[in-house]
Specification:
2 copies of one chain form a homodimer.
Chain A: H1 10-23, H2 27-33, H3 58-64, H4 69-78, H5 83-101, E1 104-107, H6 109-126, E2 137-141, H7 168-175, E3 179-184, E4 196-197, E5 201-202, E6 204-205, E7 208-212, H8 218-225, E8 231-236, H9 242-248, E9 251-254, E10 278-283, H10 286-298, H11 315-318, E11 330-333, H12 344-359, E12 363-366, H13 372-384, H14 387-395, H15 428-450, H16 453-456, E13 464-467, H17 484-492, E14 496-503, H18 520-528, E15 538-544, H19 550-567
Parallel strand pairs in A: 2-3, 2-8, 11-12, 11-13
Antiparallel strand pairs in A: 1-3, 4-5, 6-7, 8-10, 9-10, 9-14, 13-15, 14-15
């Protein structure tokens, strides 16, 4: 792990990068914000941005508290709010969020405001919006290259790497009239469901800073929860959009493989095409998730990304033509995955959704899991097939340690003890056997789902599954040890949409007496719970549909969401 | 390569299998056919089936000479021709074809006729056809499992393996009302562009039996060319549908990855998901290609195969909405791939198509190839990553030799000297690097194609590429050494449709003086040509469109085909 004498040590590179990041924040904003930043023992910081009234004007607070992206877009398209003022408002609030949770990586105020001005000029000149996302500030996970900007993805070895072109999705966003305005924090390697790396450090949960914001899109989670961005783009190879979304109380979509363009973005484990990572939106509103997805698909991204599926936005599917038009549907609740039983607040979220749907006349049955552990183990083995070599090659230039845990803040001084689960290197032939196993499991699950036509009474198989996103709400740092509840759908490539439901209430979500444990992991999970630790953390569910059923899943999520609002 | 004393040697297994195959042919058919089978020095046997008038009645000759699948289907759907009589007619003719070219593997007359009777009864009872392929006999490459039938795929080690369920595509064909009626020959491992294996031996070209029928779907090629089947299903991982199609004068489609269900079929190199093999139709008519593809897609195959793309038949795309409605298009001809220049008859085929299109007012420009050799080498390296181990594991139970060449009929006694190009075993991490290279090449080619918008004058990029299928017409056995002209499109995953154009005429397609060779391979290819050797072999072109553009490619092929018919 030694570096050549002639090169700066990796720690020196980090110090330099952090100084440059700090310098990229307008000094006058910073000086106004700093007095508002509480000491670490203030856990819930979600109310603080609105207290920064010296920085955020009343109008800026109105703008940033407009959670419904559809409303924001309407005001931007009409010119009632200019993109410059909307971008400025969100930028200021993003910096506040950053000082509270450490959620940002790249900060480029001037550039974003210049882009916003360009969009405003377009509207003024042409009399029409530039595109379906006209003027909208969009935050981006630190993988999405923007020409001319440094792209570290949390690797010390990538400090000083400047992108020579935009990622395809960034190109699409520009075409749609959007304003990419910040990039957000991630864990080293991206392969953790929390957010910590040697370059930028840790992102924390705005509802309880002792808890993780989730990962790997944890910067997005914290930022959007604090309303520092109206919508952001995360990526998900095992839950990395959905986990921060659930832990931070946001809507989000994990689309199927290759629906949203990935071309030109940086990533870990490049070439791992068996369980591809996908990009998708996180937002405070379901309208944001829908409008983003629709806009990207309508842009014909297959003209930019050779891996993108040539499949137009399917309005019939969105209107649920294949699901009885949205009436008299049959949902199924996954209460547990047969491996780890969720904590009380997660069960409460499922029960809340079930009751809300039933109150609307929808049918809700139970979903019995099928081989979830086998699917998750298969995905893990596929990742492990080449992960260790990938991490070694990437970190080798500077000798930064590969993290072995997310639990300690002094990770940066720990010599690498790479987690064993990611080092089962195999041959290509052995990888093929894992693919074969994966295909068999997917076929089995497909047949299993199709066979539910016998149970629904609708003449159709179950329309969608309602499932936990994790067996817990946001846990303390270093304690998010499994992503099984999300990874299973990556392995099966089912479209999944996260819907926030409520927050942990330590008085309501009391610890239950021990049950008959499903596994050692289940027992460990049971023992981890006490309601005080998790207090105030958001709780959510996933709505799970079929492969490449983004439109239908969004349509069904609208029904669930409306039912929740009606019941609430 | 020794086998245990208690087990029959692999040669004994072959003898037994061949006896059983022979016994599966109705004896009364065989006795009538045999006098018509000429000695091996009769090269062109394409006219022989129609001479077997004792076996094929006039009506049966009319049925089997109905090349247009749309016409066949109309007569079947109206009941003018019953499925039993159509299936009987094609079955008799298939047996003739088999005796001439050795194109069949599994023969199951009673079972097929029982199925045909079931379809006839359905029509009689319900007054409507069973589905879009009502009553149509369909031949299947030896990968497509049918419940209860032996599935050897040309491996001695698989003799005695009986399928316990239908492949998903067979299920779909049943739902569509079709009658699967024979299975067809392939090369050992499927990874050769000719057709020879230790179990069934070699399939030859009906237009010139010294030439190959191509491969790996070479049994389909010979069978359909002799009108022993109206339509067949082949598979294509590097050209295995298109090569026999071109060498035997048939229409065929290589769809993009995962458009047609592969689930439940046997294959070599299972789990090799980087360049997936795909199923597609071969037929004597373009209508067959269209109706098959439309029927399969309309069956919603994603409900049977978890890997199938959820993408409905796109009628707008078929009607060329994205290609100016089919008027004023701009095609581009790939004259050579920058590596090997095609023989004179292939160039003539390209010129014929160019002239025919221009006569219809379509524009035709040149297509300059981009890194075709790099794409093909990348695909080859991906296959080689695990091929040797796959072949070893598969052949190990009986010790049959892995073939090292397709050139000699005494291959069966050659000790395995596995071709070196398929034995570059690598690690999973190294395979990931090949994926990365593949993605980069696909992106480069996509951008390159999109950029042709500057050259077409249509406001669109080139609508489709017209390309050779191979640098030669069907070559002598063992001489089909490269599939680069087809494999390049597998690597890029572009939809490709083969259109027959003419036949080699030794008086027209004379050898040209040497050109400046593009490569050593080019020089070898030049030296291989003399017009007498290739005389009478069919020549064809590929029409190449975008990924998942099956509908558009079929629509454009109809325009090319109509232009050729008008000019002819």
């Amino acid at each position: 792990m030694s570096t050549k004498a002639s090169q700066p040590s990796w720690k020196a590179l980090v110090i330099d990068k952090r100084i440059r990041q700090q310098a990229s924040i307008p000094a006058d904003w910073l000086s106004v914000i700093e007095p508002h930043i509480p000491s670490p023992d203030t856990l819930d910081v979600s109310g603080i941005p609105d207290q920064c009234t010296e920085l955020l004007s009343e109008r800026e607070r109105e703008i940033t508290n407009t959670l419904d992206v559809q409303v924001l877009l309407a005001k931007l398209a009409s010119g009632e709010w200019s993109s410059v003022e909307v971008t400025t408002a969100f930028y200021k609030r993003a910096i506040i969020a950053h000082k509270l949770t450490n959620c940002l990586t790249e900060i480029f105020v001037e550039r974003a405001l210049a882009r916003a001005a360009e969009v405003d000029a377009y509207l003024k000149e042409k009399g029409e919006p530039m595109g379906p996302l006209h003027g909208l500030p969009v935050s981006l996970k630190d993988q999405l290259c923007i020409k001319g900007l440094e792209t570290t993805m949390g690797y010390v070895s990538w400090i000083g790497k400047y992108a020579d072109k935009d990622a395809a999705l960034v190109e699409v966003l520009y075409k749609c009239g959007a304003v990419p305005f910040v990039r957000t924090n991630i864990p080293q390697t991206l392969m953790w469901p929390e957010t910590f790396n040697n370059v930028f450090g840790r992102t924390v949960n705005p509802y309880n800073r002792l808890l993780t914001s989730g990962g790997s899109s944890g910067g997005e989670g914290a930022l959007i929860a604090l309303r520092g961005s109206p919508i952001g783009v995360g990526s998900d190879v095992g839950g990395s959009i959905r986990i921060p979304s659930a832990f931070c109380g946001l809507y989000s979509l994990r689309p199927s493989y290759h629906r949203i363009p990935y071309e030109g973005a940086v990533n870990s484990m490049l070439g791992q095409d068996s369980v591809p990572s996908v990009f998708g939106p996180l937002a405070n509103s379901l309208s944001g998730v829908k409008l983003f997805t629709q806009a990207v698909v309508a842009s014909e991204p297959w003209r930019l990304d050779p891996l993108c599926v040539r499949k137009k936005w399917d309005q019939d599917a969105y209107e649920l033509k294949e699901h009885g038009g949205g009436n008299g549907m049959c949902f199924a609740v996954l209460w547990d995955d047969g491996w780890v039983k969720p904590h009380p607040p997660v069960i409460r979220a499922l029960e809340t959704v079930k009751k809300a749907l039933e109150a609307q006349g929808q049918k809700v049955i139970d979903w019995v899991p099928l081989k979830h552990k086998e699917v998750v183990d298969n995905v893990g083995a596929i990742w492990a097939a080449g992960a260790a070599e990938d991490y070694r090659v990437t970190t080798q230039p500077t000798g930064e340690p590969v993290l072995a845990t997310m639990s300690e803040d002094d990770n940066t001084v720990v010599e690498s003890t790479f987690r064993p689960s990611h080092s089962d290197t195999v041959s290509a032939y052995q990888l093929w056997q894992l693919h074969l196993k994966k295909r068999e499991l997917r076929k089995e699950y497909l047949d299993y789902w199709e066979a539910t036509v016998e149970k629904t009474g609708t003449g159709r198989p179950v329309d969608a599954i309602i499932a936990p996103v994790a067996p817990y709400a946001a846990p303390p740092h270093g304690k998010n040890l499994s992503s099984a509840y999300t990874t299973v759908w990556n392995g099966l490539d089912y479209t999944a949409l996260v819907i926030p439901v409520s927050r942990v209430d330590e008085n309501v979500d009391v610890k239950l007496p021990p049950h008959q444990f499903l596994s050692k992991d289940d027992e460990d999970n049971y023992n981890m719970y006490d309601s005080a630790t998790f207090n105030n953390a958001p709780i959510a569910v996933q709505l799970v549909g079929r492969t490449l059923e983004e439109e239908g899943v969004i349509g069904m999520a609208e029904i669930v969401n409306a039912a929740l609002k009606t019941t609430a």
